[in-house]
Amino acid sequence: MRTSRPARAGQYTALLAYLVFLAFPFLWLVSTAFKPPRELGSLHPTWIPKDPTLANFRQAFDEQPLLHAALNSLLAALGAAVVAVLIATPMAYVVARRRTRLAKAVTGWVVVSQAFPFVLLIIPLFLVLKNLGLINSVPGLVLVYVVWALPFALWMLAGYVRAVPPELEEAAAVDGAGRVRTLVSVTAPLLAPGIVATGLFAFITAWNEFFFALVLLKTPEKQTLPVVLTHFIGAEGVADLGPLAAAAFLATLPSLAVFAIIQRRITGGMLTGAVKS
């Protein structure tokens, strides 16, 4: 069935309006980051700065330890991504290949766990980390991020495993390979795109996370980049708008770059999980 021209025009108009709606906050952030103070306080703001400046970026780096906070965020995000993938890969293999009640229960629990609000999880997580001596530490934050990212990583990788023909694993079994050898030598190489996409997704979510880092990290030298950004807001709630916009712009670039790389792979993983051979 062909779509009429007016219908197509309406669809493209709606899509363009949606893209503008999504892009507006980021474009305004970029514009604010390069505006001098007199333009930030203007009653008639403009999209393009009339006198662009880098003073906001210099002030942001002078006022807050952005590089050290970015390093903490990088360590936490990389650690969470690597550990989540290492745990989720064999779990996804079992869930996808074992059609048992336990596997179905695990899948159902993955879906249900995503409905829990963070505020219900923070107290049990805080107590567990306190008993382990991991409060106010990057390894403790990594552990929390792994718990947070693991359900989605498991669900996503299970879709990739289901797309791998079982005949390849049966052929490996005929040749004498065990389950572990089959997973490592046969299935894992075919899962490489899914593993990369899942790891990068876990990296993005950990890089942008704010709530857990705010509660669990107390000393300034341990805080991550999203938490440090709140320091540009004064005690009375008045924001130092220029430096805040500059720091937020720099903090957004890594996650935008990573998401631009993996967005097709994420979509492919979701579609793969919905298709049965």
From TrEMBL:
CDD domains in alphabetical order: TM_PBP2
Residue ranges crossing the lipid bilayer per the database entry: 12-34, 74-96, 108-129, 141-161, 182-207, 244-262
GO biological process: transmembrane transport
GO CC terms in record: plasma membrane
Superkingdom as given in the UniProt entry: Bacteria
UniProt subcellular location: Cell membrane
Pfam families in UniProt: BPD_transp_1
Keyword Oxidoreductase: no
Stored InterPro entries: BP-dep_ABC_trans_perm, MetI-like, MetI-like_sf
Residue ranges of every copy of the ABC transmembrane type-1 domain listed in the record: 70-262
Membrane protein topology class: Multi-pass membrane protein
Keyword Aminoacyl-tRNA synthetase recorded: no
Signal peptide positions on this chain: none
Keyword field: Cell membrane, Membrane, Transmembrane, Transmembrane helix, Transport
Similarity remark: Belongs to the binding-protein-dependent transport system permease family.
PANTHER family: INNER MEMBRANE ABC TRANSPORTER PERMEASE PROTEIN YCJP, MALTOSE TRANSPORT SYSTEM PERMEASE-RELATED
Annotated protein name in UniProt: Sugar ABC transporter permease
Origin organism lineage: Bacteria, Bacillati, Actinomycetota, Actinomycetes, Kitasatosporales
